[in-house]
Amino acid sequence: MTAVRAVVGLLYFAACPAGAARGDVPAVITNPTAQGRAELLRVVGEALNGAPLTIADDALTRASTLVIERARPRGPDGIPMTGRDRGRPERFQLVKNGSRCVLVHERTGQRFPLASATCAPK
To answer: Is position 76 within any domain?
Structure first.
C-alpha cells in the first residue's frame, strides 16, 4: 500500500508544471504606472542577463504571459539580415501568490516579486 501511495505521489508531482508554486494564480496588472513599467523592464532585463529590451506600456495588462523575442541582426543599412533565426522567444508569466505579484521566467523557473505592481487574478 505504501508503494502505491509513493507512485501516486510521484505521478501527482510529475503532472504539475515545473517551478509552479502553491497558490500561484495567473494574473494581470491592474493599475499600470511608470514605476511599475520601469521595475518590469529591470526585472526582465536581469532575467535575460542585461539584454537590451523594449516592452509595451500595456504589457501584462490583458494577458498574464509576456513573450520577449530576440532582436534580429541588421545589416549596415539597418535592414534585417535574412537567415534562419534559431533563437527561441523567452516567456514570462505574471502570477498572484497571496497578495504578491510575481513574474516567473518559464524557462528557468526563476521568480521575481514585483513590489511596484498591483495585479489581479485573470
So the answer is: no
Yes or no: say if 87 and 70 are a contact pair by the CB < 8 Å rule.
yes
The cell 501511495 sits on which residue? 5
C-alpha dist (Å) from residue 89 to 26, 29, 39, 52, 106 = 20, 22, 21, 14, 11
Neighbours of 85 (CB within 10 A): 13
Which pLDDT tens digits describe the chain residue by residue (122 residues)? 444 444 444 434 444 444 457 899 999 999 999 999 999 999 999 999 998 888 999 999 999 999 998 777 778 887 877 766 667 899 999 999 999 999 999 999 999 999 999 999 99
Total tally of structural domains belonging to the chain: 1
3-state secondary structure 81-118: CCCCCCCCCEEEEEEEECCEEEEEECCCCCEEECCCCC
Number of H helices, E strands in the chain: 2, 6
What is the spatial distance between Cα 71 and Cα 45, in angstroms, rounded to a whole number? 14
Task: Flag whether 78 is in a domain.
Answer: no
